[in-house]
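Q: For a teaching handout, I want to show students what a protein-ligand complex looks like in token form. Below are the inputs, and the small molecule is zinc ion. Please produce the holo structure.
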Amino acid sequence: MSWLERAIDDPAPAAHAGYSGLHIAPEVDAALKSGAVVHSAAGLWSPPGYKPSDLMRSRGNSWDATIMVNGDVWRHRPRPTFVNWHAGGPAQNVPLCGFETEGTGPWTAAQKASLVRVLTETWAYFGWQRFVKAAPTDKTQDGIRQAILAAGKGCAYEHNWLDYTSCPGGRDDWGWLVPAAKAALEEEMTPAELFAQLKKDKDFASYLTLIEQLRRAQGTLEAQLGAHVGDAAKHAGGGVSEERVAEIIRELVAD
Ligand SMILES: [Zn+2]
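A: Here is the structure, written as tokens, with zinc ion included.
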């Protein structure tokens, strides 16, 4: 099954996965995965000179994918089934995927859209039907194991709910993310609902107005050209063919 196929590939260091001392392989069965951690990078990358995988190399960590401020998604593993080192110990790193969000301020609109796409594709990969905002844990390995089990499949965390970390929380806009992810996962929008949603967007509304203007202009042109063709037909051998008229109209209304 595919996962984040439209992303930019930036492989994480192969050695930064699994726990050999605990006999946990770099990649585990999909059944062992339960959810995800949304991290904040608290800074910017500058590819190609400085990529997420460069930070993984210097910090000795790894994660599944990065969502850049411009909305680009960087994929660090071919599948979301690796045991990456992003959220503390194995109790969280085995069951939870890790997603980094670039930048320090509020998520950009492009970043929000891509984050929902990454979550939706990941949830689809594992067949999770629900999106659950998890809660802070007691940060012990046993406590985390039990909390993740209790939260069930499809749970999402901030890093500092699982670990004593400087990874900043609060930037993760759960008030927005939870309904957005739920809508993407749980609700199939009908075309009418989608259209109603799109009409609220200013750019889309002006686009609709433009189409309506073009439609009217097309009607006027057809009438005028039709009259012209009629005139031309009166003069033997002269004038514009109907095919040419159709072609002119097509050129005029083409975007
Ligand atoms: Zn983090």
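A: Two things your students might notice: Residues 39, 159, 165, 167 surround zinc ion (CB under 6 Å). The longest strand covers residues 35-40.
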